[in-house]
Amino acid sequence: MILVGTGNIAFEYAKALKALGPHWFTSIGNTDHGCARWAERMDAEKMPCKMIQVGGVSDSAVLSVSDKHHAIVAIPINAQYETVKRLLAIGVKRILVEKPGVLYSIQARGLAYLARAAGADIRVAYNRRFYASVQAAKDIIERGGLSDMWFCFGEDMDAVLASAHPKNIKDKWMLANSSHIIDVAKYLCGGWSIVPHQTPGMYSGTGFTLRDHVPVSYMTDYRKDTRWSIQFVTKAGYRYRLAPVERLEKLINEKWGIVEETPAGGIKAGFLDMTRSFLTGAPGLPTIDEQLALIQDIDKIGGFKE
């Protein structure tokens, strides 16, 4: 097992790998300083880290790792695409990359081609799919059917624009971050065909799910909407909402009551079950081809050019 990255998200994967096995892994970082701090953290938390290599995913670094079958890529967005390409080139067969994996559909298309050619499997880490609240909503929809869905992917864009994120990430923030909630909505309804509409800062669209031809719509104003939410109605007429996504609520007698809530604390929400899914091959994680389709959806929603 290879764990690429030495930041906070990589640490959440380390905790998950410890809890699930432990599954021993080799860490790969970029700098001497970062790897030294990571080594201290691994020792302090008694993590199953058997080796730390400096210098990023160079051929010489990864080729010295005995177990290359699985790799988890937990690094900043702008480095994800090239890192996954390098892992494929040196023979890694199963890769889990932090969302979104790539910034452009042409990159996703390229990784999908390379993965097929190498007989490899790339999955994208959308941990909110594995929230207890989202899994409960998925179960309700599968058992009770769907008659309507609406979602909002608001962001605090003033904070985003003032942040230290690179300009190309800010320009595609809908993919870089809002894709979390867009992916959950698509995951719950099973896919859609939507006609989008855009005005500066405002995004709306209407359409139907592919499976049952159920109405689905969204409305987001980046100038004032700052929260994510999903609402859906079952065929029996029961209304539910994920707002916030960590909590599933049902409308009963004009009052919202909690149905399921994702536990807080410990390992980052969703990471344990997401990592388990990756290790065992259980369903739930999107493939790189599914991520390509999501990016194409988001390009249409946001009016982005490929």
Attribute tags:
Rossmann fold, alpha/beta, Dihydrodipicolinate Reductase, domain 2, 306 residues
Query: End-to-end distance, in Å?
Result: 34 Å
Count of discrete alpha- or pi-helical segments spanning 4 or more residues: 11
Fourth CATH level, the homologous superfamily of the largest domain = Dihydrodipicolinate Reductase, domain 2
Number of domains: 2
Query: How much beta, percentage-wise?
Result: 25-35%
Q: Estimate percent helicity.
A: 40-55%
Low-confidence blocks of residues = none
C-alpha Rg (nearest Å): 20 Å
Broad structural category:
alpha/beta
CATH architecture of the largest domain: 2-Layer Sandwich
Brief digest:
The protein has 306 residues and is of the alpha/beta class.
Question: Could you describe the 3D structure shown?
Answer:
Helices cover 41% and strands 26% of the residues. It has eleven helices and 14 strands. The chain has helices spanning 8-20, 32-44, 59-63, 77-89, 105-118, 132-144, 157-162, 167-171, 173-189, 271-280, 288-302; strands spanning 2-4, 25-29, 49-54, 70-73, 94-98, 121-125, 148-153, 192-199, 202-209, 215-221, 228-233, 239-242, 247-252, 255-261. The protein is globular and about 60 Å long.
